[in-house]
Amino acid sequence: MSAANTVNPPVLFTQDELGWVAWIDPLPEAELTERHFAGLVDRSRAKSEYFRLLVRDPEVLEARTKTDKDIFYNTADGLPRAERELAAAATSRYNGCIYCASVHARFASTYSKRRDDVQRLLDEGIGADLGERWNAVVRASVALAATPIAFGEDNINELRRAGLDDAEIVDVINGASFFNWANRLMLSLGEPTK
Amino acid sequence: MSTTDIIDTLAGIEPGSSLDAIRARRAQARENAQKSYLALFEPIDASDFSIAERAAVALFVTGLHGESPVTAFYRAKLAAEGASLVEAIEAEIARGETSGPYGAFPAGPLSMENKAGLIYRVAADRKPALGTRLAAALEHAHLLVLRPRDAASADMKALLGAGWSNTGIVALSQLVAFLSFQVRVVAGLRTLGASLGRPANAAASA
């Protein structure tokens, strides 16, 4: 994206839909080969500037995308989708990724029907009181995002007291950890725009 | 079934254990976290980001998270791929270690949450040993690990100016970001495993 494009960066966390513009050149759509489409996984992602930038390394993008989809979309068992999205939103709020937080706060609201609580996470930050179960998920996500990693036995115990079994705890670990990957790409390769 | 899954190995998850069974329920994620690792460390094309540079950045990134089995793993990898760099990277880890995430939000109501911290730069007298490209990569990696919200378009220009291509920048960013994921999954699973008693305990398999 050239410097001539107008960027109107958001200054607050929001559940609104945001755009994203790259700071270095994505591949032009016309130059994508079958190797690139394999990396994109969904052909429709060729419309996204973000994915056309990441597809410069198609093998990594393909593996990353398939990791992402299973962690969040495979709800045959384990943690409800809403709480996986909560882990993603809390991680993004703590790391400071306004774009990622907007997407996953929206998903958390959609799947939980608790839009006001999700908005309080965005407005008040990671200390917002969202009830025992959500507080445990948020605190575990934040402890995992810290460097050095602060996640410990206390987080496991708190998640268990809130009713999560071991498989559900693994879904929290996977979802929160994955957003430490996603946040760093979104924050460093471009910026959100309203 | 995967062979020598790197996350399972580093987290101490034994075949047949209860965590092994739980991990098997997310087989696609498990398999593709492994494929991500292979695509980053055994790429089909390393022309934009060499194997030794990848191992050096990996030791630096995992070292910034504190010593762990993950750090030891990437230290051994760098010893194999670029042994002459190990000492310099260890010295830079010691200079760069701090607590994160910190950094600034876009100017506005969130500015009250801004948190100042170390702006890491490679030691001037170590730059000749590391080279311009790797020195720039370490500075960028530190930014991504500890203060990702500070990242700006100027940081892309710094990498381009140090000789990184657009494709190399994407691979470097993926490597740092992937390791930020991997080190956390391993830490989380180790903690959970320890809470179950012995991580290798197979008695409670699902």
Can you offer a commentary on this structure?
- The complex is a heterodimer of chains A (194) and B (206).
- With 194 residues, chain A is mostly helical.
- Chain A is built from nine helices and two strands.
- Chain A has helices at residues 34-40, 49-54, 58-73, 81-95, 98-112, 115-124, 132-145, 153-161, 166-188, and strands at residues 19-22, 190-193.
- A two-stranded antiparallel sheet of chain A has the order 1-2.
- In chain A, helix 1 packs parallel to helix 3 (58-73), helix 7 (132-145) runs antiparallel to helix 8 and helix 7 (132-145) packs across helix 9.
- By secondary structure, chain B is mainly alpha-helical.
- Chain B has one domain (6-101, 112-195): AhpD-like.
- Chain B has ten helices and no strands.
- Chain B has helices at 6-11, 18-24, 27-41, 51-64, 69-82, 86-96, 127-130, 132-146, 153-161, 166-195.
- The longest helix of chain B is centred in the C-terminal third of the chain and has 30 residues, at 166-195.
- Chains A and B meet through helix 3, helix 8 and helix 9 of A and helix 2, helix 3, helix 8, helix 9 and helix 10 of B.
- Secondary structure class of chain A reads mainly alpha
| Poorly predicted residue ranges of chain B | 198-206
The ordered string of helix (H) and strand (E) elements of chain A is: EHHHHHHHHHE
In one word, what is the shape of chain A?
globular
Order of helices and strands of chain B: HHHHHHHHHH
Domain count of chain A = 2
Strand percentage of chain B: under 5%
User: Low-confidence parts of chain A, pLDDT < 50 over ≥5 residues?
Assistant: none
Helicity of chain B, in percent?
Answer: 55-70%
Number of helical runs of chain B? 10
- Overall, the morphology of chain B is globular
Write the layout of secondary structure elements.
The complex is a heterodimer of chains A (194) and B (206).
Chain A: E1 19-22, H1 34-40, H2 49-54, H3 58-73, H4 81-95, H5 98-112, H6 115-124, H7 132-145, H8 153-161, H9 166-188, E2 190-193
Antiparallel strand pairs in A: 1-2
Chain B: H1 6-11, H2 18-24, H3 27-41, H4 51-64, H5 69-82, H6 86-96, H7 127-130, H8 132-146, H9 153-161, H10 166-195
Helix pairs in contact in B: 3-10, 4-5, 4-6, 4-8, 4-10, 8-10
InterPro entries (chain B): AhpD-like (IPR029032), CHP04029_CMD-like (IPR023982)
Protein name (chain B): CMD domain protein
Domain Carboxymuconolactone decarboxylase-like (chain A): 58-140
